[in-house]
Amino acid sequence: MRFTVVLIAVVLGVGLGRQALGQDGLEPLFWREHIFSIPFRVHRSLGDPDAPAQILLYVSDDDGRRWSQVGAAQPEMDRFTYHALQDGVYWFALETTDRRGRFLSNGSRRAQLHVVVDTVPPRLELEAQARADGPIDIRWTAEDPYLDAASLQIQTRSEPDGAWDRLAVSPSSSPHAVTGQASWLPAPGSELAWVRVEIHDQAGN
Predict the structure, then answer these.
(1) How many CA atoms lie within 13 A of 45 on its CB side?
(2) Which of 3, 52, 184, 186 could form a disulfide with 190 if both were Cys (CB 3.0 to 4.6 A apart)?
(3) What CA–CA distance (Å, rounded) separates 141 from 107?
(4) Distance between CA atoms of 157 and 201, rounded to whole angstroms?
(5) Angle at Cα 40 formed by Cα 38 and Cα 44, nearest 5°?
(6) How many angstroms separate the CA atoms of 175 and 23, rounded?
(7) pLDDT score at 12
(8) What is the pLDDT of residues 17-73, one digit of tens each?
(9) By C-alpha distance, which of 128, 124, 120, 126 is closest to 177?
(10) 136-143 and 147-157 as β-strands: parallel, antiparallel, unpaired?
(11) Whole-model pTM?
């Protein structure tokens, strides 16, 4: 009898991002912490003597060329906890063994989950310069290997306790950077002006 062990997903929350599918059809999950949970589920018949006795977790940090066992769990458990030592791309795969320690899989290990651990926020540069005729010229550049260009917001206000107003912009972007410039005219009589730029990467940094 064949048994299926399914990696469900990384625990959902802030820091979950999306990217294009890889060559193996897996969509990477982005996470901004080094510790995360990997839930799994075993499809089996209760009381079957040939059911898996142990679930083994393997990880690869070199695109599947080398695999290391990093966890073992009983089928009634529902998750592993993994601690990544550093930022990077991690592939995960599961194997099952019977009560004698024999592998129940066909021996061809392949990734079932891709996790990108990214704890570094984007690098952001901002310049704002007032012109003699009143408007303020704003220039910005943001860079990150996993930048979410759509998250860019340029906000302005003319009063210290005033509400932030979003400035409509049309930035130019590449897969890892976004740049742009815009002009904004503060309210008449304002002696100070505030400009705020927000952007994050696919991990939520």
Answers:
(1) 6
(2) 186
(3) 48
(4) 25
(5) 170
(6) 18
(7) 28
(8) 334 434 467 889 999 999 999 988 877 665 666 677 888 999 999 999 999 999 999
(9) 124
(10) unpaired
(11) 0.80
Residue indicated by tokens 């696919």: 202
The encoded tokens of residue 114 equal 């891709």
